Amino acid sequence: MSRSCRLHLPLLSRGSAFALLCLLLRTLEVDALNLTLNNSHNATCLRAQWQMNFTIEYETLNHGLKNVTIQVPSNASYSGSDCGTNDNISQIKVQFGSGFFWTVNFIRENSAYFIDVISFSYDTSDNNAFPDAKEKGKVSTTFEVNTIGVPLDEFFRCRSVMTVTERNVTHNYWDILVQAFIQNNTISTKEYLCDEDESIVSTTAVTTMPVPTAKPIPKERPYPGTYSVTSGGAVCLLATMGLQLNITKDEVTSLLNINPNTTDCHGECHKESATLRLNDSSNEYLEFLFAVKNGNRFYLKGVNVSLTFVNGSDFVAANNNLNCWDAPIGSSYMCNKEDTIAVSDTFQINTFDLRVQPFNVVEGKYSTAQECFADSDLNFLIPIAVGVALGFLIILVFISYIIGRKKSHTGYQSV
């Protein structure tokens, strides 16, 4: 069974830094950030939609290093965002959580606009986000971009994921749409694509016949590992699964099995979200993001991965708009048969012997499981139902044929 979500994830070069953050959109994104700024004359001067998250590495009390991924909620505050006073500088400010601040400055030069500086700060005194941080206090990172100019009469778009690491913070940006210094209160309909999206469009345009990708050589079934996350001394998240990563890079597809014996895990548990992060020698991290929907069900909302290959090249993928492993809160989700999560066009996860419970774990044990469709008995009824339906259809056709022959014969006798 395959579940897919659309997302292109090329590797980001620092040179494409403008996309780095220009910010925003895909119309159907649930958690997209959205901002429209008006100037002192109540005319629209900037419009932006985008998505972003941050992975922060910090030192723990036991002198180890730990990573935490910060998701930006859709209800973040934009207080302090400004069009500027001289129409040459504008700024977006985003505030969320306990002490998280993100800022981007746009500058105008002649007939183009640029991203000038990006800043991000956080406070390790926040015990929820950094429960075991050794150093407590505010940390700030700032870097300059100012590389690619976008014409004033165009909006910038970049659907691809863009990743930049500054000091100990990794920034991820995707589904970006932004237009700064809007002229005459008129939002442009002409788009300026980032290099990553442009390369995808160009490749599609010049290819007259798609070249099939070689199917990866089958690898042995991965051994399942059991992973747990604790909070307040009690297990709050349980997961058992065999994991096989299906990666396509430079038109070469390969399979990588996760070895639970060499894999460390940690994560976080909150009332409506939970995180499981796996680390081993071959993947910097593989992260599963769980969420609550409708107040009574949980599901796998996102997957983030960062890999470093033996040749030193990197692979990064993220998708925070999945809808997999759905089950009632208070139960677990189970799927013993092979299942596939399509994170992107270049990255899939094959799971085996899966069982997961990210909320309401009691005494460190799984609750009653909701089985996936592939495991359920109903799965065997499909070919039976198809066979029965086909049999009825054949009988119906046969009866119709007999009736038709009989009527035709009666007509001949009357003549």
From TrEMBL:
Domain Lysosome-associated membrane glycoprotein 2-like luminal, residue spans: 223-361
Topology in the lipid bilayer: Single-pass type I membrane protein
Molecular function as annotated in GO: enzyme binding; ion channel inhibitor activity; protein domain specific binding; protein-macromolecule adaptor activity
Segments forming a coiled coil: none
Entries under InterPro entries matching the protein: Lamp2-like_luminal, Lamp2-like_TM, Lysosome-assoc_membr_glycop
GO terms of biological process kind: autophagosome maturation; cellular response to starvation; lysosomal lumen acidification; lysosomal lumen pH elevation; lysosomal protein catabolic process; muscle cell cellular homeostasis; positive regulation of ferroptosis; protein stabilization
GO cellular component terms, semicolon-separated: autolysosome; autophagosome membrane; extracellular exosome; late endosome membrane; lysosomal membrane; phagocytic vesicle membrane; plasma membrane; platelet dense granule membrane
Entries under Pfam families matching the protein: Lamp2-like_luminal, Lamp2_2nd
Subcellular location per the Swiss-Prot or TrEMBL entry: Cell membrane; Cytoplasmic vesicle membrane; Cytoplasmic vesicle, Autophagosome; Endosome membrane
Membrane-crossing segments per the record: 380-403
Major location category of this protein: membrane
Keywords, sorted A to Z: Autophagy, Cell membrane, Cytoplasmic vesicle, Disulfide bond, Endosome, Glycoprotein, Lysosome, Membrane, Signal, Transmembrane, Transmembrane helix
Domain Lysosome-associated membrane glycoprotein 2-like transmembrane residue range list: 382-413
Positions of disulphide bridges: C158-C194, C335-C372
Signal sequence extent: 1-32
Family, per entry: Belongs to the LAMP family.
UniProt xrefs under PANTHER family: LYSOSOME-ASSOCIATED MEMBRANE GLYCOPROTEIN, LYSOSOME-ASSOCIATED MEMBRANE GLYCOPROTEIN 2
Protein name: Lysosome-associated membrane glycoprotein 2
Species this chain originates from: Phascolarctos cinereus
